[in-house]
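FIELD: query
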Amino acid sequence: MPFAIAALPALATILPVSEHFHLWILAFAAPVAMIALWSGRTRHGATGPLLTGGVGLVLLLLGAIVFGETRWETGLTVAGSLTLALAHIRNWRMRRAVSCDQLEPRPAAMLEA
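FIELD: result
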């Protein structure tokens, strides 16, 4: 989804998009993203993806609310979307690494301890 959001500024030149569209997407994406990133943090314990996602959401918020309808809006929206996408990728990889570690059989010496 973050990649689709990142492409929207380019699509806005072709398709008619309401000015409130950013706010609706942000209202949906922010809670979903934070739930996903927080869930990952509880599983793998790393705060990096959560902080990166927070930065991405702040950039999206700035683009939609503070700098809406200015020359900064598109750059902030794209940067926020890509930063949020990076956070989700890092979170997914870390969650997957933890899941794979849990599936590996443990040596007998570790089982005895």
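FIELD: remark
The chain has one domain: 2-9+22-100.
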